[in-house]
TrEMBL record:
Naturally occurring in which organism (per UniProt): Selaginella moellendorffii (Spikemoss)
Keyword terms, alphabetized: Calcium, Disulfide bond, Heme, Hydrogen peroxide, Iron, Metal-binding, Oxidoreductase, Peroxidase, Secreted, Signal
Residues holding substrate: P165
Record's protein name: Peroxidase
Family, as annotated: Belongs to the peroxidase family. Ascorbate peroxidase subfamily.
């Protein structure tokens, strides 16, 4: 996307979804409406930029969700992922797991428009959080309040990104990786639910189609019809496929319906069915006993609170790719 044990979360915001009131976590120092006096138009400005980009490219939602997660999961939500390398330092961008991360151009465009109205006021970290929320809402997902007040970090080190989960992680490994960041098994399930608009390359799961665990056969846990479909599609490792085969541009619960039907493409997604702690949540989301919109908004907010810099810590960058 530190632990929640190291950063106390005050549960103070209420979010209304289809008649259900959900509590949203807020990290100390962040609050909804942080810029209400200093840059009152920041949210409409950011949403306008997201809407413009999304009109040209419907995969923007997936790009921003991945960018936000890969930033928050390393040093916290401090926009350290946006920093370019320098002559003396390789930044997080250089890590292999971040090689295909994109959306920097959208964040830069939003930052430039915000700076024209409110110079030196709004952090790149907050713009990432707001833009991600807007892309979710514009793709049919929840439109939830985002606590702001984050400041930008000054440190970005390539090897720090080693903590990012592997697409082939098993259930226990993924649960532990998220727990190390103060996130629960439910957060794991919901944040992987961002794959509802995700795209991956055949190289990440090809072994499941042709030589699972050295057997020379496909993974028997994958739906045979999906195996045949992907075997035809994956003519090379670079071919891209949608992780949600039903509504790939819409943020919804269809992804979890497919998990229950053994139609997960990545190992890390299918592993959610293996561990009882996560399988129960997957089934609740699929059958509707756990409201997807409310739960997804809650977990996105939890992630957005990870190790934030507030007050006088960090800085407000003039441009998102370099420290001041």
């Amino acid at each position: 996307m530190g632990s929640r044990g190291n950063s106390v979360l005050a549960m103070v915001f209420l979010l209304l979804f289809a008649g259900n009131v959900e509590v949203i976590g807020q990290s100390s120092g962040l609050r909804v409406g942080f810029y209400s006096r200093s840059c009152r138009n920041v949210e409409p400005i950011v949403r306008g930029v997201v809407q413009r980009f999304l009109g040209r490219d419907r995969t923007v939602t997936a790009a921003l969700l991945r960018l936000f997660f890969h930033d928050c999961f390393v040093r916290g939500c401090d926009a350290s992922l946006l920093l370019n390398s320098t002559r003396t330092n390789r930044s997080e961008k250089e890590h292999g797991a971040n090689g295909s991360v994109r959306g920097y151009d959208l964040i830069d465009a939003a930052k430039a428009e915000v700076e024209r109205q409110c110079r030196g006021v709004v952090s790149c970290a907050d713009i990432v959080a707001l833009a991600t929320r807007d892309s979710i809402a514009l793709a049919g997902g929840p439109d939830y309040p985002v606590p702001t007040g984050r400041r930008d970090g000054r440190i970005s080190i390539v090897n720090d990104a080693n903590v990012l989960p592997d697409p082939n992680s098993n259930a226990n490994g993924a649960i532990q990786a998220f727990a190390n960041k103060g996130l629960t098994p439910q957060d794991l399930v919901l944040l992987l639910g961002a794959h509802t608009v995700g795209i991956t390359h055949c190289g990440f799961f090809r072994h499941r189609l042709f030589n699972f665990r050295g057997t020379g056969r496909a993974d028997p846990s994958m739906d045979p019809a999906l195996v045949r479909q992907l075997q035809r599609a994956c003519t090379s490792d670079s071919v891209e496929v949608f992780l949600d085969q039903g509504t790939p541009f819409r943020v919804d619960k269809v992804f979890f319906d497919q998990l229950v039907s053994n139609r997960a493409i990545l190992i890390i997604d299918q592993q959610l069915r293996v561990e009882q702690r996560t399988d129960d949540i997957v089934r609740a989301l699929a059958n509707g006993t756990l409201n997807f919109n409310a739960a997804f908004a809650q977990s996105m907010t939890n992630m957005g609170n990870l190790d934030v810099l507030t007050g006088t810590r960090g800085e407000i960058r003039r441009v998102c790719s370099a420290v001041n």
